[in-house]
What we know:
Blueprint: H1 2-8, H2 12-70, H3 80-87, H4 94-112, E1 120-127, E2 130-135, E3 160-162, H5 164-167, E4 177-185, E5 192-201, H6 203-209, E6 219-223, E7 229-232, E8 253-259, E9 262-270, E10 277-283, H7 284-287, H8 289-335, H9 351-373, H10 378-391, H11 394-409, H12 413-431, E11 438-439, H13 440-458, E12 462-468, E13 476-477, H14 483-496, E14 500-510, E15 516-525, H15 532-543, H16 545-549, H17 555-567, E16 572-578, E17 582-590
Parallel strand pairs: 12-14
Antiparallel strand pairs: 1-2, 1-5, 3-4, 4-5, 6-7, 6-10, 8-9, 9-10, 11-13, 14-15, 15-17, 16-17
Helix pairs in contact: 2-6, 2-8, 8-11, 9-10, 9-12, 10-17, 11-12, 12-13
Amino acid sequence: MIFRNIFKNYRFTSKLIITYLLLTVIPMAIIGYVSYWQYNRSIENQVGKYIPRILSQTNDNIDRKLDELQNLSELIYNSNEVVSILRKKTSQSQSRSLQDKFAVEGYLSRTYLSGNYSDVLGVFIYSNNRIFQKANLAYSAFDPNSLPVGQELNFRGKVSIILPLDAGLQFEGAVPYLLIVKPIKDSDNQKTLGTMYIAVTMKFIENVLSELANEDSATLWIMDMKGKIIYHTDSERIGGIYDDARLFPVTDGSFKKMSSSKSELFSVSRSASTSWTLAYRIPMEKLTAQTDRLRSLMITAFVLFVAVTGVISVLLAWNFTRPLIQLRRLMVDVQRGNFQVDMQIRSRDDEIGMLAHRFNAMVKEIRALIQENYQIEIKQKEAQLYALQFQINPHFMYNTLETISMAVEQGERETAVEMVSLLGRMMRFSLSNKRRTIPISEELQHVEDFLQIQKYRFEDALEYAIHSSIESENYGTLKFILQPIVENSIKYGLEHRQKVYIELEIDEVRDENGKSVSIRFSIRDNGVGMDADRLQQVRHMLSDSQFMQRDSGVGLLNVHSRIAMEYGESYGLSIDSEKEKGTVTVLEIPVLPMEDEK
């Protein structure tokens, strides 16, 4: 409210400059911010959709590699000698046992460690309390009974994968590996001959993930259903537990999460084969690095735009307000009675040019009326001239232009154009002085235009309604008989009321035979009304012929005298009012079909 009051006191040029800047700078700032935000979101969405697809493909590659490694256990069935040895019981001579051990381990070495399978670190077989083992690297003692499945040795034909910490087996150099465990079945009777353990290095996982892990700030890891880390770009975390895994909102997709006071993008994909989850994490600031550079560029462009827009707004404001200032000065001259004025018109196509043209035409017409009608039918013509001047009162025009300027300041272009159109139509009506009688519809249109302009000016403080039960275009009336009364209601009503309601009703008065004898205009308002003494005084003025013969400055008397002079004293104006309850003004004129006037 304080800002609004201060803003109202600014010069019109300053208001236009501020308004223009607000209507350009603020939208551009909003558009720039929304564009940057939308672009940022677009990148996040694209990355959020792209990475899970890559992770899913990577999971498929890992699954295929695991399937290949798991199928290595089937090579044991290629050697009948080895199968025969595994069928033997342990109760045999030591020399024979050593020969069997040499034969089996030799086959393991030739088949799995000869170079065709570079991912294999070692192969172990546990059968009938015998251990056959062969490895490329030195390792700690292999104890199958320390494994979670070593005691039961019953996998129902399924392959199990065990992590180093669970296997109790460590290779030289702490090489990370996976232990693939599968039971060996006798093809003849499907009895379990033993269990095969194949230790494979995790380099195949590193190779598959190499393209995803090339970003320094990105982190990649694989974990099982319990959150145990199978692989991590930070090898020290392998075998640990990722506690936040259970809090992930999705198993396949992307989401944002605050971590260590910064926002990070997480993308995950779960393998349908192993139920392992492949996770990818990268700080959001790395994803939006390009958008940050774009933001700096946009800010620079915005500052330049504001500077250029400021210069343009000053030039436009000065160019727009200069003719309004000139028109206001000329209106002051007209208000003082100087009708020898003329406004230079730079353009007839815009609203200001149209208004200036109408103003010049109005002043010119007034001068012509004063010149031509001064000595002709003095009372009637002076009343008409007063009515004309009353309608184009410079105060009314000044207030209307102020209202139009406020609408322009507030960016209400449609309102400003509508008011200019209404004012132009009122001027055309005022200047169309060729007919003494006009259709009632034109008089109603004129008073409605006046009320609508006042409605734009006073907003919610003024309400009005017009009801007509006749075909107003078919009947005639004098000009300017309604506006003075309506203007009186607005003027005195708003002096004492916060809100004024005006109702105009037009109907026919019929005699006892149903014949239309007159047309009645009833104007009601909710103003303060008049007490009995003031009402009696006004009624006396209306009925006194001495008042009617004077060039009275009172709008009501002027209207009443014009009607009485034109149609006879049986027609005219009557008033009924009650203090604090409003006033009802009734105008009555004879029925004048318009075809009689043609």
